[in-house]
Amino acid sequence: MRLTKSVETFRIILYRLGMSEQITENFMRSEYACSCCGKDYIKDDLARRIQEVRDLLGKSITINSGVRCVEHNKSVGGSAKSSHLTGYAADIRCDSSAYRMSLIAAVSQVFDRVGIAKSFIHVDVDPTKSAGVCWLYT
Q: Which of 1, 93, 103, 116 is the most buried (most CB within 10 A)?
């Protein structure tokens, strides 16, 4: 447990210094880090699957939100049981209807938990939640 805390502290320091490690071909760990504190305990399976989506699209993806600390999650109106709190979820930026359509097509090939909003697509791999679901944010 102590080593895990040390690794997390080291990663936060790297984040604050603007340094990060490559975790997939096109993504840095810092892209998933909490924007207020730098916590970056993103799950490898989630990062790997988002890379798969990026490969299917053949174009870049922007992560709006990955890991969230409790304070940040509250500030954005996130659920108390949000998968972002445990590193199992990410929101992918979506700037147009055409891009949303192609993103949904790619995401649905890789993820079985998908939320659709006007400005982002939520994906997660949370093993504590039901699979095979899609929902809309209003």
A: 103
